Amino acid sequence: MLMARFAAAGDAPAVIDADATTTSYAAFAADITALSTRFAAAGVGPGTSVQLIGDFGARDIAWMIALWHLGAVVAPVAPTSLEMADSFAEVGDAAFIARPGDDSLVPGPGNSSCDLFAELNSAPGLIIFSSGTTGTPKGAVHNIDRLLSKFEITGKAMRTIGFLLFDHISGIDTALYTLAAGGALICLPARDPASVSAIIETHKAEVLPTAPSFLNMMLMSGAAEAHDLSSLKIITYGGEMMPQGVLDRVAAAFPGARIVQKYGASEIGALRSKSTSDTSRWISFDTRGADWRVVEGLLEIRTKTAMLGYLNAPSPFTDDGWYKTGDRVEVDGDKIRFLGRDGDLISVGGQKVYPAEVEAALREVDGVLDAVVFGKPHPMLGASVFARLQVPAGEIDPASLRTKVRQGLAGKIEPYKIPQKMEFTQDRLESARFKKVRR
């Protein structure tokens, strides 16, 4: 399907690299064809596991699609995950290690013998390693034909920023959606607010898929005001809870853009969703190919784009195929609103505290740039609320800041939710994947 779409797009821009080099669909397709011939001669074929170390760019994406064209199972590794590459190669049973950056395809440590690869039945595959901040990353094996099925109906061709990571399911989804629709994927030299804003302005980007913490950074840094971002038509966010205050400020800062909450996971792919409004955290899912239900307050999803299974962990699915997301939600008809990860829930003397709620309240306190909240053991209450706060440089006076924060929270959240202990820092509080590190 992809190659036919590329042929139809002809000389339209497919990928704009970080150095502003533009590759047309015709040139992109020709590169994929040549690479497929080269990889086949090297011994790559159906079921061959290949670790692909790279980032979004015309060359790296062409390598990925060429490998899929041969029926290979591709495990992308982004620069932020390089320290795990050797471990991923072992778990992924990689027969080859591919590095588009230095044009190399060399033998890997494995022989592509995992049982899940046989289940692909010669269909191309994708291995996505989980991005959790604790525990061993789990390798989820996907059938690419299933993931591509959601693009059978051609989307709208738009100029889209490749912000989400090369080895993240939503990053892959963004690239495939953009290219299947005949749009242009705009790659980034860096993922800081100033660089991203400059690229949006230069290339008149229309779509920015990102994370709540990055949108907050854009507004707090002044980068959004320093550049002309009026070309943006759609801003999507996901991966973390969106504080209502941040969402309100984003909607006000980008009145010409639709603000849409997205949902996805390494295990099920990225689902189509629609926000009730630009300032609403209630969303509804497109149920074509996906169903959802709530069991004891936790979201479960069954979808055609679900993974075949983990390489190195038990199945997270029920016997009848529902994925247990671990996300606690509330329901209003056909809409849901996320409350937080069940594993992040803090029980203070039997009373539930959702970290995202406390973090949102903390961000509204003058002088607090960002916040992360988690529980710590308490001998009497079971757990106490702990907060790590990002503050501007030169403003770390622990005693006065603690007083200011407690006064700022009084009357806004229940007393048992107010952090008993606080730590102040000028460092960022999210990982390289823009996820809160709650530990």
Structural summary, described in words:
The protein has 439 residues and is α/β, with parallel strands linked by helices. It contains 13 helices and 27 strands. Strand 25 (370-378) and strand 26 (382-390) form a beta hairpin. The strands form eight sheets. It has a seven-stranded mixed β-sheet with strand order 6-5-3-4-7-8-20, with helices on both faces. The protein has a four-stranded mixed β-sheet with strand order 2-1-10-9, with helices on both faces. Helix content is 28%, strand content 28%. The two termini are 44 Å apart.
Q: Which secondary structure elements does this structure contain, and how are they paired or packed?
A:
Blueprint: H1 2-9, E1 13-16, E2 22-24, H2 25-41, E3 49-53, H3 58-69, E4 73-77, H4 85-91, E5 96-99, E6 104-107, H5 115-119, E7 125-129, E8 139-143, H6 144-148, E9 159-161, H7 169-180, E10 184-186, H8 193-203, E11 207-210, H9 212-221, H10 223-226, E12 234-237, H11 244-253, E13 258-261, E14 263-265, E15 269-271, E16 273-275, E17 283-285, E18 290-295, E19 298-303, E20 309-310, E21 323-332, E22 335-341, E23 346-348, E24 351-353, H12 355-363, E25 370-378, E26 382-390, H13 398-409, E27 421-425
Parallel strand pairs: 1-10, 3-4, 3-5, 4-7, 9-10, 11-12, 12-13, 26-27
Antiparallel strand pairs: 1-2, 5-6, 7-8, 8-20, 14-15, 16-17, 18-19, 19-21, 21-22, 23-24, 25-26
Brief descriptors of the model:
single chain; 439 residues; alpha/beta; 7-stranded mixed sheet; 4-stranded mixed sheet
